[in-house]
Input
Amino acid sequence: MNDPHEESSQARADRRLVEMLQELRVLQTGVQIVFAFLLGVAFTPRFTTLGHVRQDLYVVVLLLSVVAAGVFATPVALHRGLYHHPDRARIVKASRRIAQLGLILLAMALTGAVLLVLSVVLGFPAAVPIAAVIALLFTVLWFVLPWAVRRRLPDQD
Output
């Protein structure tokens, strides 16, 4: 290894895991903010005036956000539990899949939160198409775009 920019597969896996944990830290903060907002909603006087459909939507969005938080914390738990395990590449691969699941759950929670708020402000007929556009936006930005860019890049292994 004469090139100082070359790294061993172990060093690469270590670096990728650290990078992923840093990314998850940012996402986790966002999930916690959404979750905190949602927790407060149920204790407002107006919450009891929402119909059953909106209250059910609220429960679904709240649960999606808490599950997203748990999923985003899972790679951290894997890292802690398998800290000295030599096969970091497998830990990175599993963590990447778990993080993708977390992104799906977060997109669903955020879209649901938008749907909930806009259904109260604008009514369901206006809120549903706007929430659908938001869901499409998350899909394109978080999944389609990275896939398209990755397809155009040379393999990194």
Remarks:
- The two ends are 18 Å apart (CA to CA).
